[in-house]
Amino acid sequence: MNVPTRQAKLYSAPLGDLNSVKMGLIRRVAMRNFLIHTTLAFLVCVVSLALSQQTQSAQSKQPQDHTRVLTGRVFDRQDQPLPKAVVYLKNTKSLVIKTYISDSDGSYRFPNLSPNVDYEVYAEHNGARSDTKTLSSFDNRKLADITLRVK
């Protein structure tokens, strides 16, 4: 019995055809790599642009410096500047007390105070004390000046 068998046909291409097939394949790979790199570069540009705009937007939304400063001078009964007086500043919301020892000209300074808090300030020197004065949260001055007189 004669059974037909299939035999694989081998394709033999001339040498010139193989080189053109290789060159075509190389061109396709090069084009694919070029498209991938171009797409990645484009995506990097888009993402960096979006991030820079987001950063600028966030910076413009940052609150401005809304703190205030309390300055003043401490005087004795004869209206002479009182150096080395202890000035007390009490935050009426948190009850935290800050102190400052007055300078040689009687001056004192409390920076970075919250505008939404009332503060009480007074001075003491050698057992004598000034009246307590209040810096109100309704006082919208950035630089408040309060003079204290020790009795």
What features would you describe in this structure?
- The protein has 151 residues and is an alpha+beta fold.
- It folds into two domains: 15-62; 68-149, Immunoglobulin-like, CATH 2.60.40.
- The protein has one helix and nine strands.
- The protein has one helix at residues 15-61; strands at 68-75, 86-91, 97-101, 107-113, 119-125, 128-129, 133-135, 143-145, 148-149.
- Strands 2, 3, 5, 6 and 7 form a five-stranded antiparallel β-sheet that branches. Strands 1, 4, 8 and 9 form a four-stranded mixed β-sheet that branches.
- Strand 5 (119-125) and strand 6 (128-129) form a beta hairpin.
- The protein is rod-shaped, with a radius of gyration of 41 Å.
- The relative contact order is 0.15.
